[in-house]
Amino acid sequence: MSTLFTQTQFIETEGGRVAFEDTGGNGSIILAIPGMGDLRSEYRYLNPMMQQAGYRVITMDARGYGETTAKWSDYSARAVGRDAVAVLKKLGAGSATILGNSFAAGSALWAAQDAPEQVNGVVLLGPIVRDLEVSFVQKLALGIGFAGPWRVGFWTMYWDSLFPTKKPADHIEVKAAITRNLQEPARMDALRAMINLSKADTAAILEKTKVPALIVMGTKDPDFKDAAAEAHTLARKLNAETMIVEGAGHYPHTEMAEQVTPRILSFVRSLAGSGSKATLRVVA
Predict the structure, then answer these.
(1) pLDDT (tens digit, 9 = 90+) per residue, 190-210?
(2) Residue 29: which of 96, 116, 74, 104 has the closest Cα?
(3) Does residue 1 fall inside a structural domain?
(4) Is 2 within a domain?
(5) 151-160 helix and 187-195 helix, angle to the nearest 10 degrees
(6) Per-residue pLDDT for 247 more than 60?
(7) Per-residue DSSP letters for 20-64?
(8) What is the pLDDT of residue 274?
(9) Structural domain contains residue 284
(10) Mean per-residue pLDDT for 110-136?
(11) pTM of the complete model
């Protein structure tokens, strides 16, 4: 990986500036949103394979991170979904399949809810779209972890744990880039604000959502007591397909990109044949 940021473009929206990259071309569009605290380089392994398959790939930095503005009045998944739609409209890109990791899975769902004409399908990667049970010990650890000058190190140590089976070859380089980014003023404040947001609003739209969906979940995702069970619960609510990736953590598309990318491409291709209003069956 020669660089983490190339060909950056910007759009002004809702009092801030959103950074994104666009491979261009005339192919069907895939727009990818990284999880909280991460950078758009999260999709560095998927992007070339999707582009080689003929797709136009757009990746953006979520509010608070990367080259996107740090300070916002609203860090919600719905607000980030609006940013994704704004990027598509700025480019005159038409309908897209939106990929969202972690909290940004909710952004993909909100984009489909608020602008159905812009979204033909969603891929939810390690989705956190409902409020998870947090123990007293976990709450205490978070409070201490974000309380002092060690908070960036605390976060990147946690980020390390999200790759339980294998770390990508460029893991150290990416970790250093995340560290530098979070050391910039207000970015850790954005992260803390996001962590403290309830997902109840997103949970409330799950059974109302009609967009075709694929859920990709790693069996060792440490954010869930039973990651596969969470995937199947969400699949029933969304009438979605699932891909359970044995041994993967919270970033199955990075940790095991060679397995996950073909499945995502198969799903995206199916949208062209079935149309954006298609109903997808749940796959165990």
Answers:
(1) 999 999 999 999 999 999 999
(2) 96
(3) no
(4) no
(5) 60
(6) yes
(7) EEE--SSSPEEEEEPPTT--GGGGTTHHHHHHHTT-EEEEEPPTT
(8) 57
(9) no
(10) 93
(11) 0.92
